[in-house]
Design brief:
Length: 99
């Protein structure tokens, strides 16, 4: 994958990317993010910055997903008030400003 910026990703087909996409994902921690000492690999500043950002993303908790599924099944998330609350939250966030 070629990364032009934090929001622009261009897939690049190579045998290595095909093998990597079929491999099982390893847990995110400092050991998996660090290169092997004898590999000769030195991450760029951009890669180090992106790795730091990825580590800040919270893990998805099963109980939160279950709660959302239950609220959705009960119709709570499809009410007019839920639509207004969602619109207000999006308007107050940086989602529309791109930052």
């Amino acid at each position: 994958m070629r990364v032009d910026s934090a929001t622009n990703f261009t897939p690049v087909s190579t045998p290595a990317t095909a093998a990597a996409s079929t491999a099982k994902a390893a847990p995110r921690d400092a050991e998996t993010a660090a290169p092997a000492a004898d590999s000769g690999f030195s991450p760029t500043g951009d890669l180090s910055r992106l790795l730091s950002l990825v580590k800040e993303i919270p893990d998805v908790r099963g109980e939160v997903i279950l709660e959302v599924l239950n609220r959705s099944a009960s119709g709570e998330l499809t009410s007019p008030q839920a639509a207004l609350d969602t619109a207000a939250a999006v308007a107050d966030s940086n989602v529309l400003r791109g930052s």
